[in-house]
Design a protein that fits this description.
It is a single chain. The chain has 24 helices and 8 strands. By secondary structure, it is of the alpha+beta class. The protein has 4 domains: 191 residues, no CATH class; 70 residues, no CATH class; 69 residues; 68 residues, Orthogonal Bundle (Arc Repressor Mutant, subunit A), CATH 1.10.10.60. A 4-stranded mixed sheet has the order 3-2-5-6. Strands 1-4 form a two-stranded antiparallel ribbon. The radius of gyration is 32 Å and the shape is extended. The N and C termini lie far apart (86 Å). About 15% of the residues have low confidence.
Length: 515
């Protein structure tokens, strides 16, 4: 073959580093974004948070704020004195305590009630000059005590020898967050002893751990240190007063939990030799037990979701605002940037190479700030488009949800579906009905008899309502639910109802039936 030269024209998309960073920042959650920002602040000297002001500036700002408040107070005092001379009707209207009104509105929101003039949430909860000023949302985390610390405090009050106390501490550290032993005692022994330890030593350590387990299982909360659910429930039952019902409950927990889960009363009566009334009383006793003794010590605050956007009432519609608590405040360090611009060195020198490297870091900082701003702008645009499509949801709830797919929002905003997918993943919206992931507002459509479409989210909400209102002694089957939906004009198959029911974590009809 003879070598030859050929020319070929082709088009391809090249992802620049700036575009790659923009895509990556867009798909990050709020927590991941904060971690990314912290890392960038450590690596790039040209970036700094906006709230890092010199102490002198802070003092001046505080003094200015104090003087402004003094002027406002004096103006309010003068206006109040002038209004007190007006008529009685005007005086009554002017005498309303605005702080009291604000408190009432906030209480209504927290209690889940909605007033006719509800205006949504305009911003993060205001900090009035009262006891709320000292409230730290993370104080519960710092003040809370872990399950291990709680048990170790009890251990200090027990008169045990040094070896027994050390053995109990080993078991305490082996507990998972639910209060169960994460590993069998034999495996704990293997982790404590070196390889090749003789059998007598193993037996001695195992015997001491078994004794320590007895001490542990007598601590509070009752049920801690169990190997499984059966043992956990039995430990709690044995701590209660003796009686026939307790013995039946212990028998059920030890050997017949599966029958109890299936609500099989007849087989429970046959297996335990108890009457129907005794089985029902034993079930009531078991229901009161705590299957996860460590639950009270878990940090629920770790699961709190901070919304990225907040919905506000705007006239007859709704508008979206960014949550100021999640928006990072970054800026370029002007002092370093000016110093870099002022320093010019001849090319080819070490100083010139250093200047080039610093210039690239400055450009990187500017890109980062711009990409973060673009990230929040995109989230805001997508959120507003979702709200415009799902107006009925914010008035009537999930049962009024409309079918919506990513393609509709992408076409409206001129973006790609993959971009909409990144924006709606791990981003949350605060609504009058709670906080939801943006993906929650998307759902496939189901046909109706009228020729229209119903959202799968609305159908799931309707299924939940039907199950909630059912007779506990005669729960609705999936076929019955499908028939009831068809009566309301929604055509859905039984297997689809089963899929939606499982997604809602609703048990089948035979398991929902009351004993």
């Amino acid at each position: 073959m003879k070598p030859s030269l050929q020319f070929r024209l082709s088009q391809h998309m090249a992802l620049t580093p700036q575009l790659q960073q923009s895509i990556r920042l867009l798909q990050l959650s709020t927590l991941e974004l904060n971690q990314e920002i912290e890392q960038m602040l450590e690596q790039n000297p040209f970036l700094e948070p906006e709230d890092d002001l010199p102490a002198l500036d802070l003092a001046a700002a505080a003094e200015y704020e104090r003087q402004r408040n003094d002027r406002q107070n004096s103006d309010e005092t003068a206006s109040t004195a002038a209004e007190s001379d007006a008529g009685s009707s005007d005086g009554d209207a002017a005498g309303i305590d605005t702080v009291e009104l604000g408190t009432t509105e906030r209480d209504d929101w927290e209690n889940g009630t909605e007033r006719d003039d509800f205006d949504g949430i305009s911003e993060a909860p205001s900090r009035n000059n009262d006891a709320d000023d000292e409230f730290d949302p993370m104080s519960r985390n710092t003040a809370g005590i872990s399950l291990q610390d709680h048990l170790k405090q009890q251990l200090l009050g027990m008169r045990l020898g040094a070896e027994d106390m050390a053995a109990v501490e080993v078991l305490i550290e082996s507990l998972n967050e639910d209060g169960y032993l994460a590993d069998p005692l034999e495996e704990i022994v293997d982790s404590l002893l070196p390889e090749g330890a003789d059998e007598d030593t193993r037996e001695e350590v195992l015997s001491r751990l078994k004794c320590a387990l007895g001490w542990l299982q007598h601590m509070e909360p009752v049920g801690v240190g169990a190997a499984n659910l059966n043992e956990c429930l039995v430990l709690q039952l044995r701590a209660q007063p003796a009686g026939r019902i307790r013995d039946v409950a212990i028998d059920i927990c030890q050997q017949h939990l599966e029958l109890l889960a299936r609500r099989d009363t007849k087989k429970l009566m046959s297996a335990t030799g108890a009457s129907e009334g005794e089985v029902k009383q034993a079930q009531g006793l078991i229901v009161q037990l705590e299957p996860k003794p460590g639950r009270a010590f878990t940090r629920a605050e770790a699961n709190i979701i901070i919304p990225d956007v907040i919905i506000q009432k705007s006239g007859r519609g709704w508008k979206v605002v960014l949550n100021p608590d999640v928006m990072p405040k970054l800026r370029i360090n002007d002092l370093y940037a000016q110093a870099l611009r002022a320093s010019r060195s001849p090319r080819g020198t070490a100083a010139s190479e250093s200047h080039t490297a610093l210039s690239s870091r400055l450009q990187e900082a500017r890109w980062f700030v711009k990409n973060i701003q673009q990230r929040f702008d995109t989230i805001l645009r997508v959120s507003q488009a979702i709200v415009d499509r799902q107006k009925n949801f914010f008035t009537h709830g999930e049962i009024a949800m409309k079918p919506l797919v990513l393609r509709e929002i992408a076409d409206e905003l001129g973006l790609h579906e993959s971009t909409i997918s990144r924006v709606t993943t791990a981003k949350y919206m605060n609504t009058p009905f709670g906080t939801f992931e943006l993906k929650y507002f998307f759902g496939s459509s189901l046909n109706t008899e009228a020729g229209g479409n119903a959202s799968s989210t609305a159908v799931r909400a309707l299924i939940k309502q039907l199950v909630t209102a059912e007779d506990a002694k005669k729960p609705l089957s999936d076929s019955q639910l499908a028939s009831m939906l068809e009566e309301q004009g929604i055509q859905v198959a039984r297997r689809t109802v089963a899929k939606y029911r499982e997604a809602l974590k609703i048990a089948p009809a035979n398991l929902r039936k009351a004993l």
